[in-house]
Write a structure and sequence with these properties.
Blueprint: E1 2-5, H1 7-12, H2 20-30, E2 37-43, H3 55-60, E3 70-75, H4 78-84, E4 90-98, H5 101-108, H6 112-128, E5 132-138, H7 151-163, E6 168-173, H8 180-193, E7 198-203, H9 207-219, E8 224-227, H10 248-257, H11 266-279
Parallel strand pairs: 1-2, 1-8, 2-3, 3-4, 4-5, 5-6, 6-7
Helix pairs in contact: 2-11, 7-8, 8-9
Length: 281
């Protein structure tokens, strides 16, 4: 199982600005754990997401010398992607593509058709800059806006992304409405249908329901999962009441309980858990 730690998602909606040095220290600590990837920041409008206005400065102070972990940055348009591509330390660019027309407008100020065109442009940019584009299908399990949603819509979007050559697609439960049943159903449909695509799960959840959702993801054959230590986070563009991320430590506990071999530094994870309390205080 690839674990993608998402301090960016934990930080972006936090009530007060987290000092730049605190971000640097925290992400440098996370780099010692051994995560596959860290979603560390975003190149988006500082007016839209002021918490991430220092992403470039944070990146310049990260110590990647002894870490196998790759970095992912979120972008919402071509300008942000062009900026991210100037940094050789970044391996992945992540783009939020929504199944909900309402949320696509709220999140990136684009229609779905415009966002799909942006995906194609960013994919071309990634190809020329040796980056990999990860597309997040947000509102992938339903939405609160009354926009049309059917599980078959997910496969339609995956088809379009497959035609563009997208290699990694993460099904995202932006507001915490997924259930073990629909998690299993969706992944069991798309994974066999698109074996050449790496599918991930980016779920928001209460801590009480996290275990059963992680189990559903694993049993459905998905081997890429996002989390955030202590379950912090949520999309500030979605609803007023943020539903936190799946807690990374619960993902780790589930995998260990089920005898899944994990290559990580448990003592550095413990240090990260302690530091997290200070960063988000």
């Amino acid at each position: 199982m690839k674990i993608i730690e998402c301090p960016r998602d934990a930080m972006q909606g936090w009530k007060s600005f987290i000092p730049t040095q605190s971000k640097i220290d925290y992400i440098n600590q996370l780099l010692k754990v051994g995560f596959d990837t860290i979603d560390f920041g975003s190149f988006v409008s500082p007016k839209a997401i002021p918490q991430m206005r220092d992403t470039a400065e944070v990146l310049s102070q990260l110590d990647l010398s002894n870490s196998p972990t790759k970095l992912l940055a979120i972008v919402a348009n071509l300008r942000g992607a062009e900026e991210a591509c100037q940094h050789p330390e970044i391996h992945y660019l992540g783009f939020p593509l929504s199944l909900s027309e309402t949320f696509q407008q709220k999140n990136t100020n684009k229609s779905i058709s415009e966002a799909l065109q942006t995906v194609a442009e960013i994919q071309n940019l990634c190809s020329t800059h040796d980056k990999v584009l990860v597309v997040y299908l947000s509102m992938g399990f339903g939405n609160p806006y009354g926009d049309p949603y059917e599980p078959s819509l997910v496969a339609e979007f995956v088809n379009k992304l497959d035609a563009m050559g997208i290699e990694i697609i993460s099904l995202s439960d932006t507001i915490g409405v997924s259930s073990p049943a629909n998690i299993k159903a969706l992944f069991r449909e798309v994974i066999p249908a698109f074996p050449h695509i790496e599918f991930g799960a980016h779920l928001h959840s209460t801590k009480e329901s996290a275990w059963e959702k992680i189990e559903a993801v694993y049993q459905a054959g998905c081997r890429r999962m996002d989390g955030a230590i202590n379950g912090y986070g949520g999309c500030p563009m979605a609803e007023d009441d943020l539903v936190g991320n799946i807690a990374t430590e619960i993902v780790v506990d589930y995998l260990i309980t089920h005898n899944h071999k994990l290559i990580y530094n448990s003592s550095e994870l413990s240090k990260s858990l302690l530091m997290c309390q200070k960063v988000f205080s």
